[in-house]
Amino acid sequence: MITLKDSITKENLLKAFAGECQAWRRYELAATQARMQNLEVLYWLFHYTANQEKEHAEVFYNHLKEFNGQEISITADYPIDNSNNILELLQLAAKHEAAEHDTIYKSFGDKAKEEGFPDIAASFHMIAKIEKVHSQRFERYAELVQNNKLFENETPIEYICLSCGHIHNATGAPQICPVCKHNQGFFVRLEDSPFGKEKILTL
C-alpha cells in the first residue's frame, strides 16, 4: 500500500489547502469592497462563505499533520480576482467554486481513493458538494445584481433587515430601515436569510 509521503494525494492536499486559504482571503477582500459600496447584504454573503472556506482549509491541513516541520513542493495555478466591480467578483467566485466541484476536488478525491486514503477521499468529495452550493449561491446573487433585482421584485415579497430584524413586505426593500435607520444595503430577501421563514418552519 502506498504511503501518504509517496503519494500524489499529499500534494493535492496542499494545493487544496492553499486554494481554500486564498479563497478565504479573496472573499474577505470582496466583502470589504461590498461594504464600501453600502452593500451590506453582499458583505455578509462573502464573509459567510469565507468562513466556510477557512474551515475547508483546516480540514485539508489536518490531513497533513504527519508532515509537521517539513516542506512539500507543489506547482499550481490560482485565480486573481482583484476588482472593484461587485458583479464581476460574484461571477468569478461562482466560476471558481464550480470548477472546484466539477473537476478539481472530484479528481483529487478519486486519486485519494485510488491511492488508498478513503478518509481523505471523503473530505474532497464532501467539500466538493459544498463548493457546488457556494457556486449556486454566488450565481444567484450575481443574477440579482445584474438584473437590478437585489432589492426589487416584480411581486411583493418579504425583506429582512440584517441589522435589527425588521421585516418589510413590498416589491422592494426600503431605502432606509424604518426601525434602525440603516440603509437599503442591509436588507436581504427573507427566503435567502440563514433563518428565513421557510427554514424556521422546517426545523
From TrEMBL:
Domain Ferritin-like diiron: 3-149
Protein name, per record: Rubrerythrin family protein
Top-rank taxon: Bacteria
Keyword Ribonucleoprotein: no
Cofactor: Fe(3+)
An MF annotation (GO) of this entry: metal ion binding
Keyword NAD: no
Species annotation: Tissierella pigra
Native organism taxonomy: Bacteria, Bacillati, Bacillota, Tissierellia, Tissierellales
CDD domains hit by this protein: Rubrerythrin
